[in-house]
Fold this sequence. Notes:
The protein has helices at 15-23, 30-40, 47-60, 72-83, 105-112, 133-145, 157-161, 165-178, 204-216, 235-252, 267-280, 296-311, and strands at residues 62-64, 97-100, 118-122, 150-154, 191-195, 221-223, 257-259. The chain is α/β, with parallel strands linked by helices. The protein has a seven-stranded parallel β-sheet with strand order 1-2-3-4-5-6-7. The chain is globular. Its EC number is 4.1.2.4. It comes from Sphaerisporangium krabiense. Keywords: Lyase, Schiff base.
Amino acid sequence: MSTVTSSFTDVAASNATLRAFLHGLPGVDRVGADQRAAMLGTRSIKTTAKARAIDLAISMVDLTTLEGADTPGKVRAMCAKAVHPDPGDPSVPKVAAVCVYPDLVGRAVEALGASGVRVASVATGFPSGRTSLEVKVRDTELAVAAGADEIDMVIDRGAFLSGDYRKVFDEIVAVKAACARDAASGKGDAHLKVILETGELATYDNVRRASWLAMIAGADFIKTSTGKVSPAATLPVTLVMLEAVRDFRDRAGRMVGVKPAGGIRTTKDAVKYLVLVNETAGEDWLTPEWFRLGASSLLNDLLMQREKLATGRYSGPDYVTLD
């Protein structure tokens, strides 16, 4: 319970009190959320602002490879791109993190060295979360021991949808504890990003409840999706999550980050999300410390649009590497 913000200790006392609190949150006006997200998505920005937005978006990307065919070589290549997205232009910022399966964390740590790019690892039975708590905790401990800076865990959606909020809460608390690192390591505890898998939560009210549940349990970030379920990230769902972190800071005094993941492929998409962050949560969240974009294919488009702004023309098809 030590990970719980003190003002919410009583809320987490039992499933009944958690349920009463979560179902007492204001309901989400679905039509209103859809309309506001659509309206913010039409905002246009001028060339100089667009250049800054592209660099900011690049710095927020979590480059990801989560396939059964992943190899050490693929991870090393991804890490090289993470540090130098455009080897011909050293002014391009590095990305925020790379995300890999736990068994490849050591390879990523070695490849990235002291670059400052973080290593994230999925854990806890990703992407389904259908395994025991003991396995989830051990999965996390192994990734942290291998050097992961961030852990992306998935919640048990079955437990959440059946109303067993205490089980979801307890699992987040346990995984958060497993993110702790020995002081002798010289590194701080790994940050915990809690994946809600919003495409399976069905309603915006459930998205808001799951967001608050994760934050009360100690999440450092809340994340929309695994990228394995459709729909993945959407502007309205991210709007609901941004409202949740904004309201949570007002009430609990702690900032929590947000990461939309899956389906964000173009620079235009990325800019829409940055506008959404600014207009909903505020400028404090417009940093890689508090907002990430889980979209590996996005990086290539950002690089091509950046080149277009700088030179007035698009680069050839071989300008960026294939992911």
